[in-house]
Every structure is written in C-alpha cells, then in structure tokens.
Amino acid sequence: MTVPIGALLDAKGYVVADGAMGTQLFAVGLSAGDPPEAWNVHHADEVRAIHRAYLQAGADLVVTNSFGGTSFRLALHGLQDQVVTLNWAAAGVARVEADAEMVRTGRLVLVAGSMGPTGELLEPLGNMSAAACEAAFAEQASGLAAGGADLLWIETMSDLDEVEAAVRGARSACDLPVAATMSFDTAGRTMMGVTGAELAERLGGLGLAAMGANCGNNIADTEAAVIAATAASAGTPVISKPNAGVPVWSGDSLVYDGTPEVLAAHAHRARAAGVGVIGSCCGSTPAHTAKIAAVLRGDEPPPDVESAAPAAPATEDRLARRRTRRRRG
User: If we measure between CA atoms, which residue out of 290, 225, 282 comes closest to residue 258?
Assistant: First the structure.
C-alpha cells in the first residue's frame, strides 16, 4: 500500500526530502559517462547505503536512482530494453531502506520514483512526439510502481509541455500520486522561459501531489521561483530542492560551495514562505539533510546566512552551456 505525501504534511506540516544521488555515487566509484541506473542492479548495496544515510540524517522522503530511466536516456547506453527492470530495481532498493527505517524508528517515510527529462525536444522544436514522450514515461512509471514507489517524482524539467506529457504517461501506467519540479536556470526562469508563477498556474490544475523546483543555476533563483509558486498556488504543496550552491574549482576538483548551513538557512526561509517539501539537489550530502532537518524541527536555530540576489540574465553562451546539462546529482 502506498503512502500519500499529504499524510506526512498533515502530520508534520512539512516534509524533509533527501539530497543528491549522483555526486554521492561518484564518491563511491561511479565513472563519468556510466549509467547510474545500472547500479541499482550491479551495485545495489552502494545505492542502498546512500538512501540509508539520507534517512538516518532525517529525510522523510528519498528519491530513487532512476533520473535517467526513460528509454530515451537509457538508449545512450544501449539499455533501452531494460527500462522496467532498472526502474523496478531503483524503487526496490529504496523501498527496502524506507521500510527498514520505518521499522527502526516508527516514523513514516516515502519512496519517490525519480523521472527526469528525456533529453529530447518536443515537436515542433524537436523530433519527439507527445505520444512517444508519454509512452516513455508510462514505461518508466510502470517499473517504479512495480518496485514499490509511493509516488512518482517528475523532476528537473524545463518545458511545461514535457511535464504534462510525463504526467499523462505516468497516470496511464499506474494510479500513484505524481509530483513535478522544474529547474530554474536562467535568471529565475527555466531554460524554456517558465517562471515560478507560470509553473503554479499551469500545473496547479493537474491534481499533482506537489509541485515546485529542484536543481537550478543557484539557490537564489530556485528560492525566488518556489516563493512565487507558493504565492500563486491554489493549494498544491510546493517543493524546493536546490543545489548545494554552485560548483567551483578546488584544486583539480569541482566542489559545490553551499554548506549545510547555507541550505538550512534556505530551508528556514522557504518554510516561512509556505513551502511544504524541502530538500537539496546536486552537490549535497546527508550532512546537508541533517542540518535542514534539525533547523526545521526547531532543534537548532536557523543559520545566520542571508539569501543571495538572483542571478543576472543569462548570456547566449551560458544558455548553451545549460542546455548541455544531462543529469541530476
């Protein structure tokens, strides 16, 4: 039996979502260019350990390792015939840890089945038909549902039409609740120009379990977008799951500059603005989740970190670089 996210919101008033999966997998051996989804089968213990760490840090909701789990994305690795298998495995490893956490602590936790963008553009801008898009998400949703997901988590989207196609596809495959988030990359808009208010207005009528923003160019733009979405929402809970700052070079490595304190300060401001589901995305760790959870519980005071100003409008060169981003984490 799946658990509705509304049950958690009613019980606590908010939900703590987990943090990054991709950067955590890279830390334990995932190689650039390899499909993380295959780790659900071949390195399940490592994936389970990441879910476990986020749950023990205080996450109420963990997102499966299936971001690139559509046939479009898996085809890049010759795995397009394993969509159901890999998504079933992704939900299954998260389900095991969520169930274990509930037995261990008695608290309610959820498994959200990650469904990232196809990487293709819908017609007429691209070659992907709406029917093909829906079918891809339906296939992925069927695997996640079979594996034990509590809800489907459409994330890191730029195009409202793709979000709507993903929702239709998901609902054609199963009756799980659906949440959706978009990525605000270019001065408070998605790559396709959507604002936070427009997200709320267009998606608010779809009967989603929750909607909002994840990933993004910086915390300030994501924060501005979710606050705008909350103000425009007619009751749908809003999600904020920003990156841990921005990646910067440290020696010969790229690291994210957002500390747990920075993310916890954002969480406090977002919650005060009415955002209901709060976590983190690329570059974050269980330490970020622990700090967010402690501040939202009231166990620690909110860090004295002010919100940065939203980014300036993006240049064409920067827009082109943003279009090349292919994976959450």
Answer: 282
- The torsion defined by the Cα of 62, 113, 211 and 158, in degrees rounded to 10, comes to 120
**Is the Cβ–Cβ distance between 41 and 86 less than 8 Å?**
yes
255: helix, strand or coil: strand
Q: How far is CA 328 from the centre of its chain?
A: 8
Distances in Å between the Cα of 238 and the Cα atoms of 16, 228, 324 are 12, 10, 27
Whole-angstrom distance, CA of residue 115 vs CA of residue 141:
8
- Rounded-to-integer distance, Cα 83 and Cα 20, Å: 22
Q: Is 11 left (phi over 0), alpha (psi -120 to 50) or beta?
A: alpha
User: pLDDT confidence of 251, banded at 50, 70, 90?
Assistant: confident
Rounded CA Rg of the chain: 18
Number of Cβ within a 10 Å radius of residue 315: 10
Q: Is the pLDDT of residue 80 over 50?
A: yes
Report which residue type is found at 101.
E
Q: How far, in Å, CA of 88 to CA of 95, rounded? A: 10
- Using DSSP bridges, classify how beta strands 151-157 and 110-115 pair: parallel, antiparallel or unpaired: parallel
pLDDT of 273 strictly over 90 = yes
pTM comes to 0.92
**Residue type at position 107:** R
Q: Closest Cα to residue 246, out of 285, 284, 299?
A: 284
- Cβ within 8 Å of residue 305, ≥6 positions away: 261, 262, 265
DSSP calls for 169-238? HHHHH----EEEEE---SSSS-TT---HHHHHHHHGGGT-SEEEEEE-S-HHHHHHHHHHHHHH-SS--E
Task: Give residue 313's identity as a one-letter amino acid code.
Answer: P
Pairing of strands 110-115, 61-63: parallel
